[in-house]
From TrEMBL:
Its main location: cytoplasm. One of its GO terms (molecular function) is acyltransferase activity, transferring groups other than amino-acyl groups. Residues 251-420 form the N-acetyltransferase domain. It holds the Pfam family Acetyltransf_1. It comes from Candidatus Dojkabacteria bacterium. PROSITE patterns: AA_TRNA_LIGASE_I, GNAT. This is Leucine--tRNA ligase. It catalyses: tRNA(Leu) + L-leucine + ATP = L-leucyl-tRNA(Leu) + AMP + diphosphate. GO terms for biological process: leucyl-tRNA aminoacylation.
Length: 990
């Protein structure tokens, strides 16, 4: 009898599977039963696959193999997250080009994946750095650019001075150092490209209900997006230096003779605009003189964002319109010497706080005698009063009214000049009676309006002192820092004035950049108040007798309102809603949904990444590269040593190609894309990996996606998933696909720890190399051991003894197979079960089949392996083993151990692959026990057991119990009662 030795057959089957394309992805049409099993494509490091990769790949492979055997069409693809900083750093260190190093690493990865026995169809392979892949990554950027979802702006970023590149927040350690090199991270202002993922925030939250993901993952996604529903409170500024200066120029106000315009008009004047129109209607010069009857939509957030562009180029963004017809650009009116402008609108892409004033100043610089006309409802006394205070002249009534959904820039101007207001967002209106200070971020947009001349130097010094702190440093610092601005804010609830501070724990890129300090009920605010000796005020307390507020911390519990005027005595939840309603009705607050999510910063100042497909004309304007010119190739000969600027800026070849193609003075964008861009769409390309004509065939993608199983590491469950979902929703909006969530079912694996229980690291010398394990024990042993270690999501320490136990299991399987070959007593596949010598084997294999299938579906691989081990131990004790039973055992084991089962299957005389065989069915009647042991209780205490046929009724069980002397002696008379739990317990009450 030959001994079990995986080396005798593993290589043979690897070659045969490759030659015969055993795992080739079948053709598919919409509606076919399918199973798309996706593993998050790995970064191909020079170190090769680690045992964590093996865990995830095998966990994907087992369901893929199982579903093939069920007759479904299966796709099991593979690809490479092959751009990125590690390869570039390695190249800087060794002098080996990133492409050469990456290509060699991929070859090693492919060999390892094949050795492990992963059923990959290599026709689906993609790689982030392959030209036929990043061509389409660039194409996606262009579509986002054309849709207004890709833009460039100056932004503070985390900068690693050693790696000379931008870091995302999650790449900065808690101590403020770079996760890759340990260098202290700095803050730096750079022009950066962004994707407007914030436009999709609500859908990214709401659509989590559509997917089968762990609740913890959904919670982390929701937390990262950070949607909170509340309102913005409006605090009037009291700056001793501030004086409300009126302009000398005259304006015209005509009162519209309409009764229904009041609400719209006042909304316009206040700038509290709702986006009721979803169309993105841009206006270009080509439309001049043409009838244009679509509304220019208003975005809720743009009214609160500064627009430097329009301040620099106002003449290109003002549009003259009347009754839907575009008459011209404002600059043309000056040339024609018109002195009254009626219906001047701001281009929708460039509306924001400060725009109205900038435009008004521009107009009067051009023509001091110019006048504007605007209509206001005669019933809107508040709006009229606002206009009058700003020097507008009332000239009578008009016969009609301008539709208020289009934003005339005059109301913007009026809003800005009327009064400067600080906005703070809150969901806890029950605490609004209690703020004792206001805090604004050091980068607050209108800081200059708030800081007094006396405090200007102190504020400047403070801002300089914190400029290199990361956002994480600022939010987690235990000691609170700040500086007084010299100004005060007026609480709209009670008209109390409270001081305004600048403090680094408030971030300009979250919320409004200003928060109200409520030290009585927020620990962070409490610490700040203590530091600066500010009052502490409470607005709620429990009704507990003898309750006292804590002396050394904030009270963050629940309670009834105090110090809240008319709302005293109300439970805080009731008071919260009533106070909010009151402030909103008095125009002192605005309903608002706030988000923690920020737009996706994708620029990277590195070489080894996808070039951004943007070109700049000689005037510096950005243009998308024409699609026919894709891909913008990454040049090979580039000096990518870190200098603080993007390596592509130093490439003559790269910049010369722009002038050759587009003309003198044209230049290319030199930043490359964040590697998250590459990994946010690869699962689409797998479906149609060789398509040179378009990004993918929509029919194929609609047939295969969403994925049926996506297996990823726990480190990818926030940003990668969110960015992938963003791209998917964008593709859906563009009509490329008919679904808007990419991964129907997603699971993530827990870490495999070293034998010492610590995370595997060269530092600890506890790294397990899968190549070594395969060499020692074979691929099947490694596969089954990693699935047997414990629940998939748990962290699990490596145990060499347990791995050897799996090797013994497979050796026993092999030995039992050899017993079949030598046994004299065999029965055909079909035989009469009952009363045959193989009845018990037949029952046990049916139970196994019934158990293992659902266990694979639920990814309970460890329990499935345990059941198969039990079954094999059972067979080992049997004198003879039925061939049919053992064949079905091999079919059940095949997804877990593809090599040994293929070898045994072949030796049993089968001419086709076991992995193309049909998953065995089970007979439900044979999965039930033929006899059961019933516990017999007397007055609830077990006195013995009886064995009866499964399914026996109460009378049969009682009769059997009375035949047992050790039970019957407790029952002298007829029982008062009998309680029977089918096939488990009979309780006799005497």
């Amino acid at each position: 009898m030959n001994k079990f030795n995986p080396k005798d057959f593993e290589d043979k089957w690897r070659k045969k599977w490759a030659t015969e394309e055993t795992y080739k992805t079948p053709e598919i049409k919409k509606g076919d039963e399918k199973f798309y099993s996706l593993y998050s494509y790995p970064y191909p490091s020079g170190a090769g696959l680690h045992v964590g990769h093996v865990e995830g790949m095998v966990a994907n492979d087992i369901p893929a193999r199982y579903n093939r055997m069920l007759g479904k069409k299966v796709m099991m693809p593979m690809g490479w997250d092959s751009f990125g900083l590690p390869a570039e750093n390695y190249a800087i260190k060794t002098g080996i080009h990133p492409k050469d190093n990456t290509d060699e690493a991929i070859k090693a990865f492919i060999e390892q994946i094949n050795n492990i026995g992963i059923s990959v169809d290599w026709n689906t392979e993609v790689g982030a750095h392959y030209e036929n892949y990043y061509k389409w990554t660039q194409w996606i950027f262009i579509q986002l650019f054309n849709a207004g979802l890709a833009y460039k702006k100056k932004a503070p970023v985390n900068w690693c001075p050693k790696d000379q590149t931008v870091l995302a927040n999650e790449q900065v350690e808690s101590d403020g150092t770079c996760e890759r090199c340990g260098t202290e991270v700095e803050q730096k202002d750079l022009e950066q490209w962004f994707f407007k993922i914030t436009d999709f925030a609500d859908r990214l939250v709401d659509d989590l209900d559509k997917v089968d993901w762990p609740d913890s993952t959904k919670a982390q996604q929701r937390d990262w997006i950070g949607r909170s529903i509340g309102a913005e409170i409006l605090w009037k500024l009291n700056n001793p230096d501030y004086k409300n200066k009126k302009e000398n120029q005259k304006y015209i106000v005509e009162l519209a003779n309409t009764d229904d315009a009041e609400e719209i008009s006042f909304i316009r004047v206040s700038g509290w605009l709702e986006n009721n129109i979803n169309e993105k209607t841009g206006v270009t010069k080509e439309f001049l003189g043409e009838f244009h009857d679509q509304k220019i939509p208003i975005s809720k957030d743009k009214i609160q964002k500064q627009s430097n562009y329009i301040k620099e180029n106002p003449e290109s963004n003002l549009i003259i319109r009347e009754n839907g017809k575009i008459l011209g650009w404002l600059g043309l009116m000056f040339e024609e010497d018109n002195v009254i402008s009626f219906g001047v609108y701001v281009h929708p892409d460039h509306r924001g706080r400060g725009v109205g004033s900038a435009l008004m100043n521009y107009v009067f610089e051009k023509n001091p005698s110019h006048k504007f006309k605007i209509e206001v409802s005669k019933n809107n006394t508040r709006a009229i009063e606002l206009y009058k205070r700003q020097g507008f002249e009332e000239v009578g009534e008009s016969k009609w009214f301008i539709e208020g959904r289009e934003e005339n820039f005059i109301p913007l101007y009026v809003m800005e000049k009327e009064c400067f207001v600080i906005h703070t967002f809150t969901t806890r209106f029950d605490t609004i009676p209690g703020p004792t200070f206001l805090v604004i971020a050091p980068e607050y947009e209108h800081l200059d309006k708030i800081v007094t001349a006396e405090n200007k130097d102190a504020v400047s010094k403070y801002i300089d002192s914190i400029k290199n702190k990361t956002d994480l440093d600022r939010q987690t610092a235990k000691e609170k820092t700040g500086v007084f601005t010299g100004s005060y804010a007026v609480n709209p609830f009670n008209n109390e004035e409270i001081p305004i501070y600048v403090a680094d724990y408030v971030l300009a890129n979250y919320g409004t950049g200003a928060v109200m300090g409520m030290p009585g009920h927020d620990q962070r605010d409490y610490d700040f108040a203590k530091k600066f000796d500010l009052p502490i005020k409470y607005t709620l307390q429990p009704k507990d007798e003898g309750f006292e507020f804590p002396k050394d911390k904030a009270f963050e519990g629940e309670g009834y309102q105090i110090n809240s005027g008319e709302f005293n005595g109300l439970w805080w939840e009731e008071a919260k809603d009533k106070i909010m309603d009151k402030l909103i009705s008095e125009d002192k607050a605005i309903k608002k949904v706030n988000y923690r999510l920020r737009d996706w910063l994708l620029s990277r100042q590195r070489y080894w990444g996808c070039p951004i497909p943007v070109i700049y004309d000689p005037e510096g304007n950005a243009h998308a590269v024409p699609e026919e010119d894709l891909p913008v190739l990454l040049p090979y000969n580039v000096d990518f040593s870190p200098t603080g600027e993007s390596p592509l800026a130093k490439s003559e070849e790269f910049q010369k190609s722009a002038e050759e193609k587009y003309g003198k003075g044209w230049r290319r964008e030199v930043d490359t894309m964040d590697t998250f861009v590459d990994s946010s769409w690869y699962f689409f390309r797998h479906v149609d990996a060789k398509n040179d004509e378009k990004i993918f065939d929509s029919e194929k993608v609609n047939a295969w996606l969403p994925t049926d199983l996506y297996m990823i590491g726990a480190e990818h469950i926030v940003l990668h998933l969110m960015y992938s979902r963003f791209f998917t929703k964008f593709f859906f909006d563009q009509g490329l696909i008919d679904f808007d969530e990419p991964f129907y079912r997603m699971r993530h694996m827990g870490l495999i720890l070293g034998p010492d229980g610590r995370k595997m690291s060269k530092r600890w010398g506890n790294v397990i190399n899968p190549n070594d394990e395969i060499d020692k024990y074979g691929a099947d042993t490694l596969r089954i051991y990693e699935m047997f270690m414990g629940p998939l999501i748990d962290a699990k320490p490596w145990n060499d003894s347990a791995e050897k136990g799996v090797l013994r299991f497979l050796s026993k399987v092999w030995d039992n197979f050899n017993r079949i070959q030598t046994t004299d007593s065999r029965e055909e596949v079909k035989f009469e079960i009952r009363n045959s010598k193989f009845e018990i084997q037949e029952r046990e294999i049916n139970k196994l089949i019934k158990y293992v299938g659902p266990a694979i579906d639920t990814l309970s691989f460890n329990t499935a392996v345990a059941k198969m081990m039990e079954f094999n131990n059972f067979l080992t004790k049997e004198k003879e083993i039925n061939k049919s039973v053992f064949e079905r055992f091999m079919l059940v084991l095949a997804p877990f151990a593809p090599y040994v089962t293929e070898e045994i299957w072949s030796q049993m005389g089968n001419e086709f692959s076991i992995h193309n065989a049909k998953w065995p069915e089970f007979d439900e009647s044979l999965t039930k026990e033929s006899s059961v042991t019933i516990a017999i209780q007397i007055n609830g205490k077990v006195r013995g057991t009886v064995e009866v046929d499964a399914g026996s009724n109460e009378d049969v069980v009682y009769s059997a119990a009375m035949k047992e002397q050790n039970i019957a002696k407790y029952v002298e008379n007829e029982p008062k009662k009998k309680i029977y739990i089918q096939d488990r317990i009979l309780n006799i009450i005497v």
